[in-house]
Automatic annotation (TrEMBL):
UniProt xrefs under NCBIfam families: HAD-SF-IA-v3
Name of the protein in question: Xylulose-1,5-bisphosphate phosphatase CbbY, converts this Rubisco inhibiting byproduct to xylulose-5P
Transmembrane segments: none
Species of provenance: hydrothermal vent metagenome
PANTHER family membership: CBBY-LIKE PROTEIN (PTHR42896:SF2), XYLULOSE-1,5-BISPHOSPHATE (XUBP) PHOSPHATASE (PTHR42896)
Amino acid sequence: MSSLQALIFDVDGTLSDTERDGHRVAFNQAFEDAGLDWNWSVELYGELLAVTGGKERMAYYLEKFNTDFPTDDKTPLMIKELHASKTVHYTELLSSGAIPLRPGVKRLINEARENNLRMAISTTTTPANVTALLEHALEKGSTKWFEVIAAGDIVPAKKPAADIYVWALNELKLNAADCLAFEDSENGIKSSLGANLKTIITINDYTKDHDFTGASLVLDQMGEPDNGFTALAGNNYGAHFINLELLNKIYTNKI
């Protein structure tokens, strides 16, 4: 029988609760720096998360929520510059330790490394944001632990399109059946399932009401031995935290 070969992780909301207290705050700081009166509340940002990608999210905001703001052929450049400024602020937030990893993430990654299980990243956020999170919240040099970092604009169609996962699988030279994916959102699971990947979901405040049809397991967190997860859907095989033993059971279940 074949064995589990690799774990592929989404980043924002999956490895860390970066959206509400990270990206949103950094966007607002960038807007203020640019002299804009835009302010994305927690509630508004939840609606904006319907669109993946920071630049795409700003365009969506102008199209749907700030229609009085004048736009022209220079607007894409303005958005690009705002996004660059936002990334600087986001990195500063990470370096301050303001955005920790979610429960169980570091333990699982270390267990995977100890067992020579390959790892990859598949995300719509920028490579710079991925590096900043891993280097500050996980461990210095930990970016190298991931063989493939599929991030940002490396493919033209972002999640919910499957392209980013297909690209990661091609780079790993693995079939979807050899891997498990970790996601937190409806757009994310549409992307991973579109690439035929078995997917484990860890919800967050923004995604708790999303449709996770097709997930192998839906949890409130990865869990720790002394702080177990709550299983919301799927078979957790009696476990209360994610480890390789549980992942191998999910992997070998062909249903």
